[in-house]
Amino acid sequence: MKIPTLIVDDEGDARTLLKIYLKGNKDLAIIAEGSNGKEALQLINELNPQIVILDIQMPELNGVEVVRNCRPPYPYFIFVTAYDEYAIQAFELNALDYILKPFSQARLEDAIAKALSHIQAKKLLELSKKYQSLFQDFQSRRNFNDFLQKIAVKINHRTHFIDVSNISFIQAANQYVYINTKGNKHLIRDSLTHLEKVLDPALFFRTHRSYLVNLNRVETLEHSGTGSSTILLKDGNRIPLTNERKKTFIQKMKKA
């Protein structure tokens, strides 16, 4: 897609020269021309060009006043003028470039290339923010149904399906894990690392390399003088909590 570009100069010959210099640029589309500052401001606000090539000394409003009176979204301004005394003001207004007349086509092309580079960088930043927002939205929309809701265990040649909300904690045992529910303990072939991934992280937290705890079953957190901690569950079980996981655990419990 070509970049919409506006040319503003009170001299017709100057506008013609700019169009000649820019004719071969395949990245630009000259969408309009203006001959005074008031017209420039109207065209900018109506057409939203991304690049404005602007003279300084013009009737109605000068180029600096045009920039000051613009409303967002702001285009990239390239001043093309015979007067150098406005340069400081122009750059204070974040003008992209300030070209003194007479100028060469190469000098104008350098300024355009700078503008195109800024536009591309802005697009990439906006795209990055968009994807980040989409990812965060996706994460926020994830609910309990996205995670494992039942765990299959074999009891007396039958397969029972335990609701994960009934699990107090899960304990690693080599290539197996113990699924601990109220008054029951079931051994299944699985790993704590795998279960940590498929269980809802808002409900289950890995307190230790060998333990995964249901946060809704936590009663209290006990601190010892050595800095280590122990989680006391509502069913009376005591689960170790490593120091490096303690801060995250407390934050999780505030939201559980």
Brief write-up:
By secondary structure, the protein is an alpha/beta fold. It has helices spanning 12-22, 37-47, 63-68, 87-92, 105-141, 192-198, 243-255, and strands spanning 3-8, 28-34, 51-54, 76-81, 97-100, 150-155, 158-163, 167-173, 176-181, 184-188, 204-208, 211-214, 218-223, 229-233, 238-241.
3D structure, described in words:
This protein has about 260 residues and is α/β, with parallel strands linked by helices. The chain has two domains: about 5-120, 3-Layer(aba) Sandwich (Rossmann fold), CATH 3.40.50.2300; about 145-255, LytTr DNA-binding domain (OB fold (Dihydrolipoamide Acetyltransferase, E2P)). About 35% of the residues lie in helices and about 30% in strands. The chain is built from seven helices and 15 strands. It has helices spanning about 10-20, 35-45, 65-70, 85-90, 105-140, 190-200, 245-255, and strands at about 5-10, 30-35, 50-55, 75-80, 95-100, 150-155, 160-165, 165-175, 175-180, 185-190, 205-210, 210-215, 220-225, 230-235, 240. It has a five-stranded parallel β-sheet, with helices on both faces. Strands 10-9-8-12-11 form a five-stranded antiparallel β-sheet. Strands 13-14-15 form a three-stranded antiparallel β-sheet. The radius of gyration is 33 Å and the shape is rod-shaped. The protein starts with a strand and ends with a helix.
